[in-house]
Amino acid sequence: MKTTDYVGDVGVIAIASALKTNTALTDLTLSFSYFGDKGAEALSEILGRESVLGTLDLAGNRFKSAGAIKLAGALKANTSLKRLVLKYNEIDAVGGVAVAEALQGNTNLEVLNLDGCLIRDAGARCIADVLRANSVLHTLDLSRNEITSDGLRALAGALAVNKSLQALALRYNIIEDDAISLLAGTLADNESLKFLSLRGVAIGYIGMMSIGKALEKNGSLQRLTVSETLVHRVGWTAIADLKGRSFLTPNSKLVTDVLRFDREVLEQVAVATSRSNRRKLQQDAQIDAGAG
Predict the structure, then answer these.
(1) In a 3-state reduction of DSSP, which class is residue 44?
(2) Which residue has the higher pLDDT, 276 or 45?
(3) pLDDT in tens, 214-239
(4) How far is residue 110's CA from residue 119's CA, in Å, rounded to a whole number?
(5) What DSSP designation does 146 have?
């Protein structure tokens, strides 16, 4: 069942009431339906029962931390939900902590999208605690949450022991190079993560070099997204340096892919690198253009 029309609290309460005896519906999408905490509370009641829902998409609504707390309470007892999308609901740190605490005992949720929920460092630290023990969650989106270096340090520590997470998005957070370097250090030995997005994160030379050196050892990461970021020019120079020195042997295509996503940056990189590197980058750009 999917709706992106105006439903509001009254409509969602009616839908939740109808679903109390549901034994067939497995996917429910109520994105951008303009309901608030009351609607979220009504949905929590069907989650807490013997639900068969596998996907619940509540992106872009108006519930806050109170609604998130109700949903989190239901998650503790739910055994069917595998994908939960709370994207673009300002549940803030209080709601983020509640959701994280609910996941401590949850063994079925595989995908969690908290993009734009403003859970900040407090929420990130609690999510990190979940990752240390969780072996089911494989996709996590924490983009646009005002997470700073403090929150990333906690997440990096969790990634050092987590063996199940395959995709992590940290786009448009407020992260400094020292924390990026710490994250890179965990990537060196991580064998599960296949996708990492740092799009919209300001990364300098030290951060990029740290990532590059980590990828010398890491053979599992398949896609690193830093396109359209606030990456400093010296950060892109670092990628060029790594590429020119033939680092990243197991991941050389990954670095090419990163450059492909930002063709305009090639000119900036070329200015900052040697003539031999410049020729190599131009050749790569022509190859990428032919393959794109």
Answers:
(1) helix
(2) 45
(3) 877 887 888 888 754 555 556 656 66
(4) 19
(5) -
6 contacts: CB under 8 Å, gap ≥ 6? 33, 34
The enclosing H or E element of 188 equals none
CA quadruple 47, 52, 57, 61: dihedral positive or negative? negative
CB burial string 84-106: b at 16+ within 10 A, e below: bbbbbbebbbbbbbbbbbbbeeb
Asked if 68 contacts 91 with a C-beta cutoff of 8 angstroms, the reply is: yes
Q: What is the mean pLDDT of residues 84-110?
A: 95
Q: How many residues does the chain have?
A: 292
Query: Which residue in the block uniquely carries the two structure tokens 């069942």?
Result: 1
Kindly state the greatest CA–CA separation across the chain.
69
* pLDDT value at 211 more than 80: yes
- In one-letter notation, the amino acid at residue 98 is A
Q: Which amino acid is at 93?
A: A
Paired sense of beta strands 167-169 and 223-225, if any: unpaired
For the chain, the C-alpha Rg in angstroms (whole number) is 21
Q: Is the pLDDT of residue 27 over 90?
A: yes
Q: How far apart are CA 156 and CA 198, in angstroms?
A: 13
